[in-house]
Amino acid sequence: MKKFTDSLSRLVRSLAVAATLISLCSPPASADRIRDLASVQGVRDNALLGYGLVVGLDGSGDQTTQTPFTTQTLTNMLSQLGITVPAGTNMQLKNVAAVMVTAKLPPFSRSGQAIDVVVSSMGNAKSLRGGTLLMTPLKGVDNQVYALAQGNVLVGGAGASSGGSSVTVNQLSGGRITGGATVERELPTTFGTDGVINLQLHEDDFNMAQAVSDAINRRGIGMASALDGRNVQVRVPRGGSSQVRILAEIQNIDVVIGPMDAKVIINSRTGSVVMNRDVTLDTCAVAQGNLSVVVNQSSNVSQPNTPLAGGQTVVTPSTDISVRQNGGSLQRVQSSASLNNVVRTLNALGATPIDLMSILQAMKTAGCLRADLEII
Fold it and tell me: Which one of the record's GO molecular function terms can you name (predicted)?
């Protein structure tokens, strides 16, 4: 009996050690809230667009000879105010600029609510600093007016010019009006009437969709089901107020996210390389060499020995071209199972970010880079 007890205790200790090793070797799981993983279908911003005039500029407006639409717009606006401009009048305007006004209409907006607008010059105005945007209707994609914008434009840039020289800090041809538009028309919404809440994941992942559905069902808030890798449908009792309360509870549920897809992102314009923690490498050999072509051009001046010789001074160009190739040794890349080892291995190659992009592409083709390679 004692031997059996000792064997059982040793087995329990062995299992405990094995469980500890498995927990140390397995990647840590992270818990995120559903509000950080998904958005509610139909709850989004809507783009608004308008065309208007900015007045009160200090001589930095549009040049009317090159932007005739500014003069035409001003003439139409004055006619609506009861002022008739004689035909053929050449108005030399310096303090007016034609602008495009953009804004985002938030979901569930009500009449009278203030929203921010962005004002951008569309002509050749030098600066919008100190200008005032006149009343501008903002329309949606259905050509209906949803807001009216007006107010003083705040420009974050600064500039000065004198004697043909100029200096500019930030952008002067665009500005912002905080709370510069008032909502005049409300968008119709069906939220809280059909008893169904559709959650749209930010990333297409079947494991994440199923994990979100299981987490909601465990809380017993509603009947959740994963429709595909991006959409999760939740059936809840009908009624607007109850759906708001249920959605608030759903968004605060923590979901344990397992390992994600290994991915390497390469920005070919900036030379940036970003990889997540699930990227691994297999053993391979890499040889990377740099080929550079250097062209040097200089000018030689040839002139006569004596002033009375009748010759002329001649400038002749001299060009030297050299080709250099550095590196090229074959190095072995060890198999790496963690991000730290991958970084250490790639740094050991001594490659620049530009060279690293070519190396990663070749590794992906050779099958030793265990990750999806995405070039943006």
Answer: structural molecule activity
